[in-house]
Write a structure and sequence with these properties.
- By secondary structure, the protein is an alpha/beta fold.
- It has 2 domains: 30 residues; 280 residues, SGNH hydrolase (Rossmann fold, 3-Layer(aba) Sandwich).
- Helix content is 45%, strand content 12%.
- The protein contains 10 helices and 8 strands.
- It comes from Hypsibius exemplaris (Freshwater tardigrade).
- This is CAS1 domain-containing protein 1.
Length: 330
Amino acid sequence: MPWDRTVLTLTIGAIVYYVCVVPRMRTLLPIDTCEVLMKDGALAQPSIEATVWQPDGCDLQLYSQNDSKNCLRKMKSRKNRHQNVNVVFTGDSRIRQLRDAFLRQLSGIDRDWLANRNITCVPAKHYKHADEEILIKDSGVRVSFNWAGVLDNGTGETGRSLERMIRNMRRNDRVADLLVLGNGVWTIRDCARKNRSQADCLIEYRTMFLSLLPKLNTIARRTTVVWAPQIRVNQSRLSDREFTNSNMRMYNEAIESALASQADSKVIYWNSLERLSYELDDSLDGLHFGPTAKYYATQMLMNLLCNRLASFTESGSNSCCPMIRAGKRQ
């Protein structure tokens, strides 16, 4: 029958398309190695002396202090004359550690007492639970930290910091180039101290994140927004029994499911950060980032910021987030 012949023809055509055409298209279309960079990876050992972090599908470029400063200067040169590169970290002590690691990458000065036993926390010098802004003039970058221990419905520390960023966007003033945010540890601790079940607190945590997600999506229109998940803990070093890896994973799954519920969200879930913490397990106190984990986390952020600038990606390399060139596979 004519109808049967039509169906057969369409079926054969579909098979030819998916077997012959689609694979060819995939070789021409760019692969999102930025997504790969932030999604997965593992420790690799290219030599007996060296161990490096290897993203699953691209190569992590290791930036020196000078490389990092030159990259940010180049980013600044593409802005208006009086505008700096703006990098914002919003969250708890773990996020403050990432801020400290970013500052060290640019200045060579380590100020993180949680990952360096040679540093003493001096309250007058180290603002543990306060907002702080540092301008590094020779790099043309402003690095801001907004303390936000817990999520909220938009009226607390996290919500207010996001609202400030949105106001800056509307005024085209200090628009962030990168926002890294995350928290959860204080929620887990407060939940235990109030004798509440983590399951109940988890529902509230996810609800709060969903209430903040519209703000994050607004910011993500002009800013790279990265959610930093909970990392591995070493329970043998901790007195707080509620800090377990199962609880950390449970809270991470809540954020992952919330982001998955909004497929059009451009917020990046930094899954490789959690994976890195499991691979290294170098925390000094069992709760915070260790020095090597911080180093590779910062290198991932530098790759995310800088690799699209052609002069900072090695020619012929398989670098993550390379500069997009027309007609070439990324």
